[in-house]
Structure formats: C-alpha cells, structure tokens
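Sample intake sheet
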Amino acid sequence: MSANIIDCNQAAASLIGFNSKEDALGKNLFQLIAPKDQQKAQETLAKVLETGIPVKSMEFNIIIKNGKEIAIESSGSVIKDQSGNPVNLVAIIHDISERKMMQQKLRQERDMLNAVTRSINAGFVMVDRDYHIVWANEFIKSLFGLVEGQLSYQALHDYQSRSMSPDSSIKKVFEENASEASHEIQITDAKGKKFWLKITAAPIKNAEGEVIAAVELAVDITDIKQAEEQIRLLSSVVEQEVDGIAVSDNQGNTLFLNKSWLTMHGLNDDAKNFTGEPIVRFYDPDQLRQIGSKTDADGIFRGRLKQISKDGTAFTTLATLSPLRDRDGQIIGTIHTAKKLTEIVREIRDVAAHA
C-alpha cells in the first residue's frame, strides 16, 4: 500500500498544513511523518494490514507544510475489497500538541517539586476525595514503596489499617473543611524501620471553591522526638535531684527552677511562675556582686553563698555557679546549684553517728 492521501476533509488538510483538501490529495502520508517516528508508523501500518485489527490512539509527530513539527494522535482501520484484500486505510487524526506541551510542563513542575521536596527530606502526596493517592514524590515513594491508587491512610499511617484514625489531618480537611490540619504519628517504613512523621494536610479547591483533593506533607521528626525524650528524661533527673538547681540567661532572668530549689526557698508555687523573674531575688545582692572575682579559670564559682527564702530569711548554701554554653561553646546563661549548709552538717552528723 502506497499510503498516498486519496481523500480527506478540510480539517485534516488544515491540520497537516494545507489550505484546501485538494492541496493535500496525492501527498504521501509517510513523507509527512517526522523521521524519528517513521519506522514506528510503518511497523504499525504493516501490523494493521496483516491482522486487520484497527489501531487506536497511536501518537507520532508530523512535519507540516511550513516545516513546523506537531504531535498528533491517530486511529486507523483497513478497508478491504470483496476478496478481503486491503485496499485503503482510513485514519482519524487529532492535534495533541497542546496536550503534549501541558504534559511536558506538568512533568517539569513535578520534577521541580520532586527536587525541592527531596532536598528538605519531605514527602509530598496528592490524595483524591476517596483517599486514594494520585501522585507522590520520589522521597516518599522510596520510603514506603507507594503506588498510585493506594489508600493514603494505609500507606502513610498503618499498612494494616482498614479505617481512618480520628486524628488524621486529611480526614479533617475532607470531612471537617479544615483549611489546614496536622498530626504526629509513629510509623514503620517498607524496611521495618520505625520513625516519627509530622503530617500536614491542606485542601485543593476548584474554581467554584469546592474541595476536590488534598495534599499531605510528611516531614521526618524522629530526631526532634528523640531530643524531646532526652529532655524529658533529663528534666526528670533534675527534678528528682536533692540539690537545688536553677538556670538563668545572660541577662540574669530565670529560665528554670527544680522542685528542690523551690522547697529550699520556702516556695510552693509552680516554677513557671518565676520564668523571666530576676535570679538575684534568691540571693544576697552584695554577695552575688562579688562572685565575678572569685571564679576559677573556667569561670566557675564554688563556695558559700547566702540566699533569701520567701519570708526574707537568709540561709547559707554551698553553691556552684557555672557557665551554660551552647553547641558552639558560647555562654548563653548560668547554671546555679545549691545545698543548705545545715543539711550538709546534718548528713555529716548522721554518718558520724553510724560510724
């Protein structure tokens, strides 16, 4: 079959760059097809002629009369004579250049989104109203082995889950019309590793303002949760310490007081009530001003200090004031520890009595 055009409508003629269908007649179809797609087109035509099975939605590029290359989608079937021999080919063609450009633009935007979210180690997922994943970035795909169409709450929350958690952020977006919602959850990835994610969901709306989908941003907060646990354990140790412990900033404002410090000063208040208060309120001001000249080479003071209780009574403590430093070694405050001398004397007497 020569594949010459013997008839076409005006729309087809205009599509391939001719002013009229008469101008298109006699032109060879394969000569219009871009060189890179000619082999594919010839193989497809040969298969149609051999099997008689119509071809649907075949995409290839053609070069129109002005030399411009455009993308088209074609469906074709064979017309046979009375003996069953193929004599003609009927093809329906559509210009899909705009669609291909949009697909390319979407791919570029998707790749950019992948790159951005990968650089911040964040998972990005788009979910439809039925909670099925319609797109996920490479970071979250590799983490969980996600596939499009999977239920988001099973993929991101619990592989065995058959129902939605009441705390689910995406549920609040879809069912409670929340403009944004977040929750934290400990999960297990595809390799069996447990870690924490903070999942934030937000709606995607159409032009009419209707929620048609949602996005979920999943950020690994395992390090933060571990740090919080370490702080909790440290706070527990400090709270149980029998010595009084206080922390102040470089301006002398109180940041923290443990229970022993409060009890030592005759206070039953919550330590939070003293946050921001001057730490000097717990000391004899004259003695506190002399500390600077009595520190060692590391800036640490060790010695006796008079402190003031709630009722104004002064009592002597064996105290240590040492610098509080950040990770870079910069001083950001002072750690105060103190124990009443009367308690130290009592402990010594108890030891001596049992010796």
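Comment: Residues 157-163 have pLDDT under 50 and may be disordered. The chain is about 35% helix and 30% strand.
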